Amino acid sequence: MAQERTGIATFKSNPITLIGPKLKAGDSAPDFTVSKNLLEDVSLKDYAGKIKLISVVPSLDTGVCDSQTRRFNEEASTLGDDVIILTVSMDLPFAQARWCGAAGVERVVTLSDHKTSSFGEAYGVLIKEFRLDMRSIFVIDKDDKLTYVEYLSEMTEHPNYEDAVKAVKSLL
């Protein structure tokens, strides 16, 4: 049974339970398997040699998640080819593709954790009560070490975009 963490996060001020470990900068980035589309699964090793900013959102079809993903899509154009920005959610790959098309998001790679919640459990962001992934940010260097971790305490709040981008730029 995966570790459950309570009392550290809320949704509209109501406590929620996160499943998995609490990671910190300096830890090795755990592997995961998520869906890139209906027929293709990917893992951490598929992005080997890149600096990875992983933006985790509960669902692209909500206001904060929409804003967060659009913001990192804009930032992607300034970070260069050594950086990949991945957005992980529980949305189905069809919904992710539809949302990206409607939003004009082309620089962020959307990945779906819906099949096995592998990412959510490995990174400690799976919300037990909703089977969604908690809003969070992870920056991983080219050697797959975590260099920046932000777990939000309230699901409806925005992450610290500036600090996340600064963490990526410090690796360039």
TrEMBL record:
<dbReference type="InterPro" id="IPR050455">
    <property type="entry name" value="Tpx_Peroxidase_subfamily"/>
</dbReference>
<keyword id="KW-0575">Peroxidase</keyword>
<keyword id="KW-1015">Disulfide bond</keyword>
<dbReference type="InterPro" id="IPR013766">
    <property type="entry name" value="Thioredoxin_domain"/>
</dbReference>
<protein>
    <recommendedName>
        <fullName>Thiol peroxidase</fullName>
        <ecNumber>1.11.1.24</ecNumber>
    </recommendedName>
</protein>
<keyword id="KW-0676">Redox-active center</keyword>
<dbReference type="InterPro" id="IPR002065">
    <property type="entry name" value="TPX"/>
</dbReference>
<keyword id="KW-0049">Antioxidant</keyword>
<dbReference type="Pfam" id="PF08534">
    <property type="entry name" value="Redoxin"/>
</dbReference>
<feature type="active site" description="Cysteine sulfenic acid (-SOH) intermediate">
    <location>
        <position position="65"/>
    </location>
</feature>
<dbReference type="InterPro" id="IPR036249">
    <property type="entry name" value="Thioredoxin-like_sf"/>
</dbReference>
<dbReference type="InterPro" id="IPR013740">
    <property type="entry name" value="Redoxin"/>
</dbReference>
<comment type="function">
    <text>Thiol-specific peroxidase that catalyzes the reduction of hydrogen peroxide and organic hydroperoxides to water and alcohols, respectively. Plays a role in cell protection against oxidative stress by detoxifying peroxides.</text>
</comment>
<dbReference type="GO" id="GO:0008379">
    <property type="term" value="F:thioredoxin peroxidase activity"/>
</dbReference>
<dbReference type="InterPro" id="IPR018219">
    <property type="entry name" value="Tpx_CS"/>
</dbReference>
<comment type="similarity">
    <text>Belongs to the peroxiredoxin family. Tpx subfamily.</text>
</comment>
<keyword id="KW-0560">Oxidoreductase</keyword>
<feature type="domain" description="Thioredoxin">
    <location>
        <begin position="23"/>
        <end position="172"/>
    </location>
</feature>
<comment type="subunit">
    <text>Homodimer.</text>
</comment>
